[in-house]
Design a protein that fits this description.
alpha/beta; Cobalt-precorrin-4 Transmethylase, domain 1; four-stranded parallel β-sheet; flat; binds iron/sulfur cluster
């Protein structure tokens, strides 16, 4: 059996930096509060919570004058305003790629209707929407295009500016952008594919691996949107694609000795978890005894 780990598996630069900064902050003061899960991975959250981080769902839950972390997904302007009203110290670790999208929509919103292609309830999309002004819409599927068009019609704007959630599927973005151009035919439509480089590279590598491997193991939290997209991409080309959160999930997966296994992971999956999955696969296979029999791993 051959096991290959994707080069782009594990923390992306934005998530890595957010966790590093949270760790540094926790050495100086405790508790610190994080608005939403710092990363969609339970093990990482647990580790930081053991060091004194408290995850909250709203600014109102944070005591006045305390420190709050704004995670890499970013937050809409209203959150900063509320934090100011409560005299909170803000450690803003919004990823620079996400900030760039905020800057772009802020610049364009005076003259264009803003469309964000992304998952509607994703925190990054909610944050970008908050910076987009009142003439804006979110499109997650083709079904949303008509509603967005009706919103656009209420304005007297002649142009549309389209951006993306930084972790959205590149394939889906291209299809939706094409449909938007068709449906907003009388408007000047500017497409700005703001999917981040790391995400693009990761998706390309997964597509390639899924064509070459006989089994793909996708490692990451079930609530991680970018990990789910990797799973969907891999499953298009590799029938034996499995989504695992921990090495225990490997128990119900069957692989054969002849399998070529590819391990891929989302931007929120720590390297240690990827290594653990790889070791467990190797360990169980060694324990299976025969190189020909089906190994239950
Ligand atoms: S996926 Fe890209 S944009 Fe999102 S946090 Fe990571 S580096 Fe930043």
């Amino acid at each position: 059996m051959e096991i290959t780990v994707a080069q782009n598996a594990g923390f992306c630069p934005g998530v890595g930096l957010a966790i590093k900064k949270a760790n540094e902050l926790l050495k100086q003061e405790q508790p610190v509060y994080c608005l939403g899960e710092i990363v969609h991975n339970n093990q990482v959250i647990q580790d930081l919570e053991n060091k004194g981080m408290i995850t909250v769902n709203s600014v109102e839950e944070v005591p006045e004058n305390a420190t709050i972390i704004i995670r890499s997904h970013g937050e809409p302007p209203i959150t900063y305003q509320k934090a100011k009203e409560r005299n909170l110290k803000v450690m803003d670790v919004t990823c620079s790629n996400v900030k760039l999208v905020h800057d772009k929509v802020e610049r364009e919103k005076a003259g264009s209707f803003i469309i964000i292609i992304g998952v509607k309830n994703h925190p990054e999309v909610i944050a970008t929407f908050g910076f987009s002004g009142k003439n804006a819409a979110i499109i997650g599927t083709e079904d949303d295009i008509l509603d967005a068009y009706q919103e656009y019609e209420k304005t007297n704007l002649g142009s549309v500016y389209v951006v993306s959630q930084t972790t959205f599927s590149s394939q889906k973005f291209d299809k939706l952008a094409e449909e938007i151009v068709k449906n907003f035919w009388e408007a000047e439509v500017k497409i700005d594919k703001t999917i981040c480089r790391t995400t693009e590279d990761r998706q390309l590598e997964v597509k390639k691996m899924a064509k070459e491997a006989t089994c793909i193991i996708v490692v990451g939290g079930k609530n991680s949107s970018n990990t789910r997209k990797l799973y969907e991409l891999a499953a298009q080309d590799c029938q034996k694609t499995f989504y695992v959160q921990t090495s225990e999930d490997l128990e119900n997966i069957l692989v054969e000795e002849k399998d070529k296994i590819g391990i891929v992971a989302g931007a929120s999956t720590p390297k240690e978890m990827i290594e653990e999955i790889k070791c467990e696969l190797e360990r169980k296979l060694e324990g299976s005894g025969s190189s020909k029999k089906l190994a239950r791993i």
